[in-house]
Amino acid sequence: MSYFTKKEQILIIIIIIIIFIISGFNFINKNFLSTKNDHNENTDGVEELFMKLEEEAETNEDEQYIMVHVSGQVYNPGIVELKLGSRVIDAINLAGGLKKDADSDKINLARKLSDEEKIHIPKIGEEEISFEDSNLKQGNNEGKININTCTKEELMSLPGIGEVLAGRILEYREQTPFKTIEDIMNVSGIGNKKFESIKELIIVK
């Protein structure tokens, strides 16, 4: 029976160790590549999600809104907010819809709206006033509300003015007529912030 010499035994051990090292390296490298691919797939999914969110944000930014004042024969007169490209009928619906006495034949329900526009819904039998006559009568004030002569309903059409505040304004002007629009801030409940929201919509005559 032959035996390996000591030198041969050492050489065999070294070869076995090298084989184990190579096998271990291949195993680790294979797992690393697999993990890396999984990571890349996850990263691609996250990037795709962010791209979708950015597209949605851009779409929302493209949506523009306008403010329109609706008065007359509607159930909730006042300021309404609509998307750009909306029509008169859309503003009327947001203002509660037409009352039974509204003369819808005198308005174009299909007309597209623009920002800061005022829509007046006349009553059946109400005298129609042309745009030029309206400007002359209002002193080119573009339909602003005269807080010395307006009705309670007209006051309630102003943003932030409810029934209680409208009543206070009427009570105040009975005692002391308004000399300037700033005098409306003397009414309890109307501060600087509320005045800023209505000052472009009111006048004093």
Automatic annotation (TrEMBL):
One of its GO terms (biological process) is DNA repair. One of its GO terms (molecular function) is DNA binding. It comes from the Bacteria. InterPro entries: Competence_ComEA_HhH, Endo/Exo/Phosphatase_dom_1, Hlx-hairpin-Hlx_DNA-bd_motif, RuvA_2-like, Soluble_ligand-bd. It holds the Pfam family SLBB. Keywords: Membrane, Transmembrane, Transmembrane helix. The chain crosses the membrane at residues 9-28. Residues 153-172, 182-201 form the Helix-hairpin-helix DNA-binding motif class domain. One of its GO terms (cellular component) is type II protein secretion system complex. The keyword Transmembrane applies. This is Competence protein. The lineage of its organism: Bacteria, Bacillati, Bacillota, Tissierellia, Tissierellales.
